[in-house]
Input
Amino acid sequence: MSEFNIVKTSCAVCGSCCEVDACVRNGKLVSVEGAKNTPEQSGEMCAKGVAAPQFVYNKERVLYPLKRAGDKGEGKFARISWNEAYDMIAENLLRIRREYGARSTVFYAGYPKWFRPALLRLSNAYGSPNFCTESSTCYQAAALAWRSVFGSDICGPDLKNTRTLLIWSSNLYLSNTTMIGTYQGLKKRGVKVIDVDPRHTVTANDADIHLQLIPGTDGALALSMGQVIIEEGLYDKAFVEKFVFGFEDYREYVRQFTPEKAEKITGVPAENIRLAARTYARNGPAAIMFSASPVVHHINGVQNYRAVFSLIALTGNYNVPGGNCMSPGPFSPANEFGKVRRFDGEEAIGEKDFPVWFDLSCDEAQCTKLADYILEEEPYPIKAVFAMGLNHRMWPQPSHLLGALEKLDFYVNTEIFMSDSSRGADLILPACTSYEREEVHIDKNGRFYFSNRAIEPLGEARNDIEIIAEVIRRMGLYDETLANGYDAYMQHILEPSGLKLQELKDHPEGMLGKYMCPSVMRLCESDPKDLPSGKIELRSLVLERYADSCGYSGLPAYDDYRIHTDVDRQEYPLILSTGSLKPQFFHARVYRKAWLSGVEDAPLVEIHPKDGEKYGIKDKTKVRVSSPSGELTGIAAYHVGGKPGVVYVYHGSSKGDANELIGKDYLDPISGFPGYKGYFCKIEPEV
Output
């Protein structure tokens, strides 16, 4: 008789980490459902999660340590033992540190994200300033923009108390499915919803006002809303006078962005801009919900988001009930989850190119130009990359990075699958999926829960953090937090909360931390901002430090990428947007799932029917998309949700990667983020 169990665990197939009920029969994962009887979920499951067995038992799984057995990039590997793998890592990394210095080794964290703090500890123990993550192209630019205005960590929307929600480029039905019920509940409660999105999505359809702008014109739209709010006297005068720096300069700058002018720039009708501005300013408290990447994946992205975030300060909706405020969380005198500061004894890669990243952003280096740093040996030689989950398709012109990785003295990648990014490695280490490991989690409301191991690891796959701890030990280095085993590490995570690991294991429903920080309202009253002025800055003094050297403006200045470009717009008349979310995809990771990849036999090239008629392209026919940087072939798909003149292609497919069409130097000068959602292309029938 077969044994059948339901195991409370978590799914980390995509960037989220959702609680799930894993159905296990005779030690094998059979199916997955959304967790039931938890505060955050009630049985929902996305398409990516439902296909979890195809993820775990995929034929491309790496199950044993593999050493390169042919030329770099040839993809030939031989199985070796874990002992041999650890010795190989220690020998090479210690040799490179002796010969070139610790800074010549880059430590990179890709997907999943759960092991980041531990890898940072390894990087620090080694002495390298070059700890990097996939946030060099995701999230941190939004955080940088926020900190340039508020000098604090990002404050999310207080959905329970808000009366108006301004959603800025976040399609919840695809990007945050667990929030769909909350979103629908807001509508039932009478909350006014304004949605800013270049496409008419389901989220936009449910909104009261949809501002359908041309991609990359967010800054002009936000500045125009600011102009209306000031011109009509709708701003919070008392709050601005007491807590805001640079208001007069900001007011003078936004005068030029009348709704009529903004309509010409953004494509949004002037009357809709006025309606949105009045609703947000009058029907308070109001909150802004924003997402990690869409706005900052433009070469004017940081300034665009600074313009958006300025609306919060202008209306006094900062750290008030119903506005954007700090959520309650576990008490921690240090950074959450015991995160340590990046070793900064030496110059990190990206520091000269993107100085504000290091002034305002985070505990990591900026590695968007990693390929150039390797090939050009500037600012110094990069000889080794120790990576975990590196996906070269996260970079613009990903083949350029792949070629650079093959030039390294030593490149190791810890991965779940035999990815294209690993084929040029000297060593590949097999990692567990989330179904094969234990883990401590915390949700946004300060609730901790324990994720059980649903099945035993396949082959010789290991827990990422246990790999990191052993690498530290084999190199003769030391980190106190990682030295006592994985259970001790999980207890370290829990320590500030006052919880014990065993009691969390005994409570599958999860537990609130015993020591919690409540939401802090009107933080400005008691906490001086970590910015030069000591106030919220509509004019950033940090950016102005680099006005002469880098050309940065302290104001959230709008620069139209469609005008200030070297690309021949006659030859490439269309805007190219890559990476707009699809429910079945997550970067390059899930194309190997038959249930999901089978939805599209080739990359879908989404165009408006008017563009199809204009360029002689019929729906469902083969097309070629070309940019100044490359080309791909795909299948035309008519899509009336977008605006004419914009082409949408999802990235990450080995059958045709849209990111190959984005120039490697097409970057936001402040953050270094690629302009994935605002480049230029042409489209023609494939003969």
User: Anything to note?
Assistant: The domain at 156-325 is CATH 3.40.228.10 (Dimethylsulfoxide Reductase; domain 2). The chain has four domains: 4-56, 66-136+355-433+459-512, 156-325, 574-685. Confidence is low (pLDDT under 50) at residues 330-338.
